[in-house]
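Dear U.,

For the methods section draft, I wanted the exact inputs and outputs in one place so we can describe them consistently. I've listed the two proteins in the order they'll appear in the manuscript figures. Please don't edit the token lines directly; just add comments below if something needs changing.

First protein:
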Amino acid sequence: MSGIHLNLLGSTFAPAGYNTDFLVIAGGGGGGHDDAGGGGSGGYRNSYNSETSGGGAGSESSLKFIIGTSYTITIGSGGAGATNGSARGTQGNTCSISGSDITDITTVGGGGGGSRPSETQGGSGGSGGGNNYLNTGSGGSGTSNQGFAGGAGNGSTSTFLAGGGGGASEAGNTDSQGFGGDGLASSITGSSVTRAGGGSGATRTGTAKDAGTGGGGVGRVYSFPANIISEATSGTVNTGSGGGGGSHVNGGGAGGSGVVILRMPTASYSGTTSGSPTVTTSGSDTILTYTGSGSYTA
């Protein structure tokens, strides 16, 4: 009996906690300037219901939140569209979940679209930005397990068709030259929503190229000498999607801001938050959607 008693006294008990699923998407990249590439989507990481993460990765493991511990949620903005040809579109900003007892979940902002004349290649990021039409090499690279690369320009002086930004589920130009890469769908909020699409590249063909599904911005359409058919648009807010590329001395659209979503058992939900997340329920779970930075105390 004494041996058993000593063993019990020496036992280490795990602190009380509960599993929490997450979807974390960083801000998308801005589109480039002048016949320019679309911005890449922000990095995409997901643990819910065996759903896919970005870049072709599988679902991640859920987090264990320890009761009484505070977890910080950081929401990154989308990158600005380039305003001149000396810089590509701005990279989007990081989104994350951090805490003293977990390995932080961090996503990389989307790469900016390539610009003319100096920064023709798209920037690297969660997903990469597309190239300016002049650059037929590889677009900006994506981050492993978060997103895909941007697309190349077509090099043609008759169409001036730039590369599409990469999305969470495919590279830029996958569906056609200049198209943004598609995003990914998740049902973490209780219904299927697609986010993190790449922005499409600018063109002079007279027809806008499709942005990636999930909120990507559309590239500018311009026909020389002064026929503006449509302006570049920005990625949808809180989807982490890339902005559309700009054309003929005009800048691209901004990337969409990021988002963090937590899903946990309603029976465990503490109700202690900051940053005013949207609180909803689905079945026996409570869902917190953060569109601005804040915290959750388990």
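Second protein (the one for the lower panel):
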Amino acid sequence: MTGTFFITGDPAADQLLHDDPLALLLGMLFDQQVPMEWAFASPAKLKERLGHLDATQIAEMDPEKFVAVCCEKPAIHRFPGSMGKRAYEVCRVVADEYDGDAANVWQGVTSGQELLDRLQALPGFGGEKARIFMAVLAKRLGVRPPGWEQAAAPFSDEVRRTVADADTPEHLQEVRAFKKLMKAQKKSKAD
């Protein structure tokens, strides 16, 4: 069901992912070396602490003060200092290159490759993370520029392997099971 998120276990945090493009982008950024639920709930924590989730306002903050907010207990990530710096850098790019609106990263693209290129240019978004986020945008929000399936492959398929496929609580469990299986077989999500 497009537009739904069942990731964090908190309906308000999941709704924020749907309603706020920056929250979704930061959640994806944080999705490494921590459980998905923690990563995608962190934007809601930031919004609560800051009183907003505005890329321009964050980019205007002193970077050290922003990182300090990220490090408050409970921290936004297992590595709150480094991820706080990276989140700040993402907000700077969104503020400087996309008029402060994270949705502008994907709005108006004419091809899947263009979207992939834009995502990979963001701090902290390597090839796999960018392709998974493309699948999130396509499967959860209906952002499907021509060629997105090829650019996001293999994450554009029907295998429930990533956060892009967690559209119900049951499917979230299937994603977890897939990740556990891949880890046991020493394979990646792309296998």
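Candidate sentences for the figure legend, describing the second protein: The CA atoms of residues 3 and 110 lie 21 Å apart. Residues 11-155 form a domain with the Endonuclease III; domain 1 fold (CATH 1.10.340.30).

Thanks,
Y.
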